[in-house]
Amino acid sequence: MPPEKKAGFDFYRSLGSPVKVVAPMVDASELAWRMLARKFGAELCFTPMIHSGVFVRDKKYRVESLQTCPADRPLVLQFCANDPEIFLSAVTLALEDVECDAVDLNLGCPQIIAKRGHFGSFLQDEWELLTKMVSTVHQNTNIPVTVKVRVFPEVEKTVKYAQMLESAGAQMITVHGRTREQKGPLTGLADWEQVAAVKKAVKVPVIANGNIQNMEDVERCLEMTGVEGVMSAEGHLTNPAIFAGLNPPVWEMCLEYLQFVQQHPCPLSYVRGHLFKMLHHVFTIRTNFDLREVVAKSHSLDEFKSAVEGVRDRYIQYQEGDMVFTHPEELEIFHLKYPPWICQPYVRPPPEVYLEKMRKLAEEERREREEMKGEGENKRSVEGEGEETPQLSKKKQKKLERNPRKAFSRARENSELCCGLPCNNPCSLKCTSRMCRKCCKEKAFNESLDCEGHRVFIRSNREKAKLRPKEVLDEVETVVDTIDNTNSAFDAGDNNDTALHSD
Known about the structure:
The protein has about 500 residues and is α/β, with parallel strands linked by helices. It has 22 helices and 11 strands.
């Protein structure tokens, strides 16, 4: 007989009354990262978000999503869904394959993929559907169901929202104190007052999410909101020792993580993402661009390890006090509390700073367009006045800000036209005849030429053919004669068929 399902605070106590919780993070809270988190103080971990529909129909996806081990407890499996029956099927299949402590319904994802797929925070206005999804799993499985939500702009609506989910059967509620619109550069601060209001209004455990960047934030959040636990996402990605109250050198955390990846393999893209998060401030320094390139282009754990050891070798003398470190100018915008080789949070500029920056960029672009329009089209036709630097797009300008050494392909809008007549295509920059590929190939065939730029080797191939042994040529001629005779026979047969049909 299956054990009795625990509810509310009995369920929370069965987890060990966790206070320090690692958030569900797509491509980031995989098993290796969860094991690193547990080593440094995490008391409860969530899996990355699992797509219920794909989970039900794709066995390979199920195996990849449910990677765990006996030491990976307590564990909550998080699903996204928009159909009660599919959500129930996904939970049922998961419970057949792994042991976990609860399943969670993602109602907080604000990304565009959630909008297109109709899940996450884009379901927060469909209370009838949410009630049915939570209640269906609650009533038909023997495992507690929890929810993770974002707040509404109005506190009253947020409170009613949480009470509705509690009534539907949610045994724990994680409240991210930001609205659906607060994401990316517009993230801003989470509203702990909304979290506190939910805590006062419901009778199930509440976990707070948002603004957690160090242990001082954990303690302040617990005191201000009265919640049972605190969840960290971005703060944990930049410092996986956050719940231990430590700020270790980045290479220590990176090497620890790579050891866990060897034990619990995951896609290299996950590893690369984690290393970039932890090494963000170090890789912002121009003298470390070479190591950043290694991480960006590596295809093995050994290469990743080599890059991390390179960071350690460059900064361990500063860490041990043998040399004095001078902060380069590229780090000034971060206002770092610790040296750049120490694990610490990445602090985004406030939304108003970002909006002001975007306003200035838009104003500059508008002014430049007006200036270009006033100069007219004659400027493009002027020759011999030197080559002008092409105006980069807004997207390329942002890439250039992140990596000043980024090289872009040359603009083609003012390039020379093909010499072939009557062709109006732009010529290849590498073609010796200054032609497009089509015209170059035709010229090479007619005049027996080669073109390195277009990789056309008519003359070379013909010369090679002349050097072939006579026996090979005789053999080719025999084959050609046979084909010609066969074609003649077919032609004769076709003529007879035509005569028969005409009768």
